[in-house]
Amino acid sequence: MFPAPVPPDPSSLRPGLSTVVLSESPLIYTIDGFLSDEEVERFLALAQGRLRRARVVDGSGSEFEAARVKSDGRTNSSCWVPGYDPLLAGVEERICGM
Asked: What's the average model confidence in pLDDT over 42-61?
């Protein structure tokens, strides 16, 4: 049996951060203050005009050829951010460091 997962200690990433557990099974938590105001503004600016309704794989064909379709059960929007952005790279490093 594997031990129950626990949220990371966010204070190791930046002093003053704290986690709020929303669910223990499955483990879902938020890290208040994880993104700076500057990072949030950058994400919003890069996503402007690029957000599209997220799709799901319908299960037909191979995983590389499967059709991606809209689903009533998944209503979020997402986008790919092209190129390299140093500010976002710093966020990625923090996520990987958890």
From this structure: 80
